[in-house]
Amino acid sequence: NGLVRVERLGGVPEKALPSQSVLFCVGEGRDRPGVIANKSHHATAPDEKYRVLPYPELYIDGGFESAEAVRAAGIDVGTPLVYEPKFLQLDGDRVAGTSVDDRAACAVIIEVARALRGADRMPTVHLVFSVQEEFNLRGALTAAQALSPDIAIQIDLILATDTPDMTTRGDVRLGGGPAMSLYSFHGRGTLNGTIPHPALVRLFDETAREEGLPLQRSAHIGALTETSYVQLVNAGVASIDVGFPTRYTHSSLELCDLADLEQLTTLLTAAIRRIDGSFSLDRDDFIQ
Fold first, then answer.
1. Which residues are bridge partners to 32 per DSSP?
2. Residue-range domain boundaries for the chain
3. CATH superfamily of 87-282
4. DSSP state of 174
5. Residues designated catalytic
6. Is residue 1 helix, strand or coil?
7. CA-based angle 236:106:25, to the nearest 5?
8. SS3 category, 66
9. How far apart are CA 191 and CA 168, in angstroms?
């Protein structure tokens, strides 16, 4: 009948999906728009109004009149579907957009690379833009196996907790500066997470203090990053997650503050420059 069912990939929140505009990723210049169907309000029974539909009950309407028309548009089993890209400039330095997680981190890494270019003293640095993070973190694990790093600094969102629905989850403010994670654990099927190496916690604490930068702290359950598996590669990799506060994660419009990204760039650049031959990863140096 021309309507399309989809399979879920990664942490897609069902309650944020109905009526969203999406794109079928057919190819450069050939992508096709669609809408995630939402039952007409006039036909919605009272007991349906507050029910969140599980994704197998959702379907995509691209305006096609038949299955043949869908295939003629280049859409078939296996065609990726994404939120339609959007970007909003909000008040001040705040922006909302599609896939701020983790496009914002990609922007930060590029700026760090520019800042480190030509530095007279720093360790060997590999900048990794990894794929399939939402599919069991496959890209980062392959990169770590190939590079065999001593240290992994993972750049990602940090859950902002300054909205009414998040106040019990910590004290991380949008616009409050970069943050580091002191504990993360997925807790939903994937029993993995990261407790950062104490040498790296000290590194970022001292760097932020000496550079006059704010550094927020986060500890949360429900999120998983690449360091969860990278830390297990070979004989072990000293790891830490640092990032930028973000609201409304995994929705079609995630929100961050550009000032936080700028300060995160400064923090990372300064911290990396402090790593030299005398930098100790011996845990005996950090016994409390």
1. 24
2. 3-83, 87-282
3. Zn peptidases (3.40.630.10)
4. T
5. 133
6. coil
7. 110
8. coil
9. 23
Contact assessment for residue 249 and residue 157, using Cβ atoms and an 8 Å cutoff:
yes
How many C-beta neighbours within 10 Å does residue 126 have? 10
- C-alpha span between 201 and 271 (Å, rounded): 11
CATH fold of the domain at 3-83: Elongation Factor Tu (Ef-tu); domain 3 (2.40.30)
DSSP for 209-242, written as a single string: HHHT---EEEEEES---THHHHTTSTT--EEEEE
Our CA angle for 98, 99, 102, nearest 5°, is 155
Confidence category of residue 189, pLDDT binned at 50, 70, 90? low
Q: Is the pLDDT of residue 262 over 80?
A: yes
Task: Look at the chain and count its residues.
Answer: 288
pLDDT tens for residues 92-116?
999 999 999 999 999 999 999 999 9
DSSP 77: T
Contact 81, 6 (CB under 8 A): yes
